[in-house]
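Lecture 7, part 2: worked example. A protein chain together with iron/sulfur cluster.
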Amino acid sequence: MDLKWVDRSACRGIDPIIFYPVTDEEAGPAKSVCSECPVQADCLEHAISHREHNGVWGGATERERQRIIRRRRRARTMGLPLEDEIASLSTGVVAG
Ligand code: SF4
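Predicted complex, written out as structure tokens:
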């Protein structure tokens, strides 16, 4: 598992508790840090591929990651191109 990207993460040194909000509505502070992170895409892929079930990873909550997984599955099935998921997260529009 290549985790070199972790060394460049924007969350290094930040209290990890903000990345484990109780509700999605409380995920704003974590998402704000993630939106400025140079390794957001790597982090999101890591969380999706390792089925991380808790916390904000790559700017996405667990519920948003589940939506991304469903959307990817649907796109694969239908032969459609994938949308820019990071852009969707930053605008808060992640269609299910
Ligand atoms: S995307 Fe967010 S959680 Fe992931 S490494 Fe960057 S700041 Fe940390």
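The chain has one domain: 4-91. The chain has four helices and no strands. Keep this in mind for problem set question 3.
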